[in-house]
Amino acid sequence: MAATRALWGGGGGWYRHRRRLLSSSSSSSAGGGGGPTAERGERQESAGLGFSPPAHSRNDWIGPPDKHSNLRPVIFYVPPEESPLERRLREARQEAQACDQRFWARHNRTFRQEKEEFIYSRLKAKGVEMRDETGQKATLNVEEMADFYKDFLSKNFRKHMEYNRDWYKRNFTITFLMGQVALARALRWLRWKKKNAGN
Q1: What integer pLDDT is reported at residue 187 of this predicted model?
Q2: For residue 25, what is the enclosing H or E element?
Q3: What is the C-alpha separation between 16 and 53, in angstroms, rounded?
């Protein structure tokens, strides 16, 4: 797997991902499932990010964590010379990240909602208001919250297992494509070197 280097891009929290052979970033795109396909030499934009990389940039740009999924969105660079195999790799990465984005956004939303409902029901059973006389939000102790965490994990065990299974499948495909792209680039370089040596 090729080495990569990340450079911070200003105070907005965005940084660019410099690729030497293959970009191996695994942060999630904030866009939906794939979206429109980028043309060669352009960039796959993610809706709602409020950011557009510099036109001269030849790197992937990774942003701050999404407020719903807590995953970092990626805007992918599409090189003008992108081959069909390289395009398959990029689109597989985009699809994998979109799946991660959707799963964790739904998961976190459910977690927050059920947590609030649990706290409210426990406080109501005690006859305690949601906020005290100073306006501070009432909370439960560690032992009480442990009941919620245990129950939540138990209820979502199957979902997590299915997610992990699909995650491994997607990333196996990505790894396989990365190997194919690396081999194709190596063979292309060898052909170029052989051609130049004969001149």
Answers
A1: 93
A2: none
A3: 9
> pTM for the complete prediction?
0.69
Q: Count of CB atoms within 10 A of residue 110's CB?
A: 14
Kindly report each contact of residues 31-38 with a partner whose C-beta sits within 8 Å and lies 24 or more positions away, as own/partner: 31/73, 31/98, 31/101, 32/98, 32/102, 33/95, 33/98, 33/99, 33/102, 34/91, 34/94, 34/95, 34/98, 35/94, 35/98, 37/91, 38/76, 38/78
Q: Token pair for residue 82?
A: 């992108």
Minimal CA–CA distance to 114: which of 148, 139, 140? 148
Length of the chain measured in residues: 199
Name the nearest CA neighbour of 178 among 21, 73, 33, 60: 21
Tens digits of residue pLDDT in 168-190: 999 999 999 999 999 999 999 99
Q: Phi-psi bin for 197: left (phi > 0), alpha (psi -120 to 50), beta?
A: alpha
